[in-house]
Design brief:
By secondary structure, the chain is an alpha+beta fold. About 40% of the residues lie in helices and about 15% in strands. It contains eight helices and four strands, in the order H-H-E-H-E-H-H-E-H-E-H-H. The protein has a four-stranded antiparallel beta sheet with strand order 1-2-4-3, with helices on both faces. Helix 2 (about 30-40) crosses helix 5. It is globular, with a radius of gyration of 19 Å. Flavin mononucleotide binds next to strand 3.
Length: about 200
């Protein structure tokens, strides 16, 4: 049966509409929709096709609540808004892959974080297309989160994503973003833009 709700949208229009959502309605999110988002993540590129991502779906209200009470406490209490999100996705990385460990040492680039970042943004954009709001969460107690799931050695929790229907229609707000000319250089590093940036950092 084709899903009549599903109207594919140009990627840029999905990106333009997306904003971080921190207020959710109580409307539950179907596991089908969550899995559609995770399918988008599954197809993401990754270093050496290592696919280090593992996802824990927290959609049981009691489990989610006790997880939230634990990881959004103390200095992390500012993230308590996420207790109202009907779904929290826990983005884990399997660090036991040799390629990722070598990459981190030789290239000084934590490839697993890149991979999880790309997969996570696939989730966020797919969610947006399905009419769901999301917010990345980096401000939580990672140690407590590890303990909560009794994670084995080598599995790292990188980020969380809160997901749900927005409390009210999101009114699109102007995006605070640098202009393209400030961040894009053709064929060379642009020193004059860089000098301006340095000046801005000093005064800012
Ligand atoms: C890796 C990452 C971690 C983030 N962590 C948090 C967080 O802990 N709490 C929060 O409220 N927002 C968090 N955000 C959301 C950012 O604050 C938000 O994306 C940024 O301000 C731009 O706003 P916009 O997403 O509405 O365009 C995070 C975003 C990213 C990409």
């Amino acid at each position: 049966m084709p899903d009549n709700r599903f109207q594919p949208e140009p990627v840029l229009s999905v990106i333009q509409k997306r904003v971080s959502v921190r207020k959710f309605s109580e409307r539950p999110v179907s596991r089908k929709d969550i899995l559609t988002c995770l399918e988008a993540a599954r197809l993401a590129p990754s270093a050496e096709n290592g696919q280090p991502w593992r996802f824990i779906i927290l959609d049981d209200p009691e489990t989610r609540q006790s997880f939230g009470e634990s990881v959004f406490s103390g200095i992390y209490r500012h993230t308590r808004w996420a207790l109202k999100a009907p779904v929290i996705l826990v983005l884990c990385a399997d660090m036991r892959k040799m390629t990722h460990r070598i990459g981190s040492v030789l290239q000084k680039t934590p490839f697993h974080y890149l991979d999880i970042g790309i997969a996570g943004e696939h989730i966020v954009l797919q969610a947006e297309e399905l009419g769901l709001g999301t917010c990345w969460i980096g401000w939580f107690d990672v140690k407590k989160a590890r303990k909560f799931f009794k994670l084995p050695f080598g599995i790292k929790i990188c980020q969380l994503i809160a997901m749900g229907y927005t409390e009210k229609k999101v009114i699109s707000r102007p995006r605070k973003r640098r202009k393209l000319k400030e961040i894009v250089f053709y064929n060379q590093w642009n020193r004059s833009t860089d000098q301006k940036e340095k000046g801005r950092q000093k005064t800012g």
